[in-house]
Amino acid sequence: MHVRPPWAEPAPAGVLDIAIDPGQAFGTGAHDTTRLCLELLLGLEPGGELMDLGCGSGVLAIAAAKLGWDPVRGVDHELESVEATRENAAANGVEVEVSRFDLLRDGPAPTAPTVVANLLRPLLLAVARAGFRGDVPSRLIISGLLREQADEAAAAFGAHGLQEHARLAGGDWAAVLLCR
Ligand SMILES: C[S@@+](CC[C@H](N)C(=O)[O-])C[C@H]1O[C@@H](n2cnc3c(N)ncnc32)[C@H](O)[C@@H]1O
């Protein structure tokens, strides 16, 4: 998988190519937390619905759509992120349904059988406390965590029957795959 700005050379044939213009939103795809989420996504059997919580520029949602999840949805509390995800999805020729949602104020998190949540520790703990608006995901990828924060965040989702299946680390950061 090759994540690049729109003005850079596309990936060679056969390599999954994603062009991302973050605009005012978070996410060129280069941050360790995003890379770790992408690696965990690549290790899953794609299929069914996927929800990207805190979609930023849309890189994870777009990658998921290209890998075969369908439908793919994303939420973010920032208008800039919603717009960037919409524009980047269109530029990459995939469908991502994006809406504005504040994970701290709008109640339990929107859900899907596969959920990716690259959020910071306090927000992940808030999501674990508030729970999900519907069925608990079968597969949940969490990141935005410093290595030393990963145990606490993974354990917080134990209350929803989610257990750690894999963990990746890069630089100071970690990402965890939790499954039901
Ligand atoms: C670390 S960035 C991840 C962006 C993108 N998923 C990626 O991996 O590149 C976290 C995202 O969560 C969003 N966010 C922060 N607080 C939020 C909240 N209360 N509700 C919804 N989204 C929030 C931010 O706007 C940001 O886009």
Automatic annotation (TrEMBL):
Keywords: Methyltransferase, Ribonucleoprotein, Ribosomal protein, Transferase. GO terms for biological process: methylation. InterPro entries: Ribosomal_L11_MeTrfase_PrmA, SAM-dependent_MTases_sf. GO terms for molecular function: methyltransferase activity. The keyword Transferase applies. GO terms for cellular component: ribosome. Coiled coil: none annotated. It comes from the Bacteria. This is 50S ribosomal protein L11 methyltransferase. It comes from Svornostia abyssi.
